[in-house]
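help with this.
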Amino acid sequence: MSTIQTLARKTVQALTPYLSARRIGGRGDVWLNANEAPDCSQYQLDSSHLHRYPEFQPPQMINAYAAYVNLQQDQVLTTRGADESIEILIRTFCESEVDSILICPPTYGMYAISAETCGVGIKEVALQDNFDVNYQAVEEAVLASQGKIKVVFLCAPNNPTGNMLDKAKLAKLLTATEGKALIVADEAYIEFCPEFTLTKLIDQHENFVITRTLSKAFALASIRCGFTLAQKSVIEMMAKVIAPYPVSGPVAQIAEQALSAQGLEIMRDRVAVLNNNRQVLSKALLELDCVVEVFPTTGNFVLARFKDSALVFKAFADDGIIMRDFANKPRLENCIRITIGNSDEMKRTLTTLNSL
């Protein structure tokens, strides 16, 4: 171990970083491993104020997003992607080396990574056999922790299984954990199933938080722009911890345009196309001999279990198609997650699978 490594915090020395799609890499021309959109809109930038620091929370951007989600401006905080929101929630509400978060695996990996980097513990309540949340077990774990579990992360649609949250059971959990823990719903993919959003629960429960992003349906993964939705009291506490300039001026300009009436129309048209492509792909997968199971999903991806995922993954790689392999994750043996791309990308995906 080098001298610099020994200077790092012990938790960082032992940390295995989150392997994003770009860090894993791959060789090919069809990228279906990061749940990105297959297209990009055009935006105009005003560079006349680039010599000035941006607003802490750019008002036009915040107002546009608040209008989009039918909340008040003081119930919205913008962050550098939803990933920063996850970290800020942990840093704001969890004492290092004392408190814990709770996650329900298999789920998005950044909840645990963010907790580890902050020196915060990680408790787990596994998803049920059908990959739905075990709400009763989550409630019991929070109450039994005697105030040590401060934040519960629930992903809806869950990445990678696609499951949604049960609104009635979630409301019961929120009531039971009021004053004890925050319950966070990660709605990164909610634009693909907007009827399931849980934003209406925010006004009813002070301990309920929603994280959102422009990376998926808005096709803006590159600008790193996310949002936290919660009651004013939660937003005010997070605003104490977040960096002084969390969103750059150009990002705010692009986000405001994406949230305009025209931008929202473009986003919804994109969602309609991708949801149709998802249905076509899911149906075709079910007819393939190499497929054991296709998980139900409401996001811009499909998780499929194959008879031999290593063989399938190699076939994709040989054909220049980059997928996300989940075969080494508990309970996801032989599973590959396929991002929903455009029609040509879906045809190439099926051509490869039909060749096996």
Notes: The chain has two domains: 3-39+263-354, 59-260.
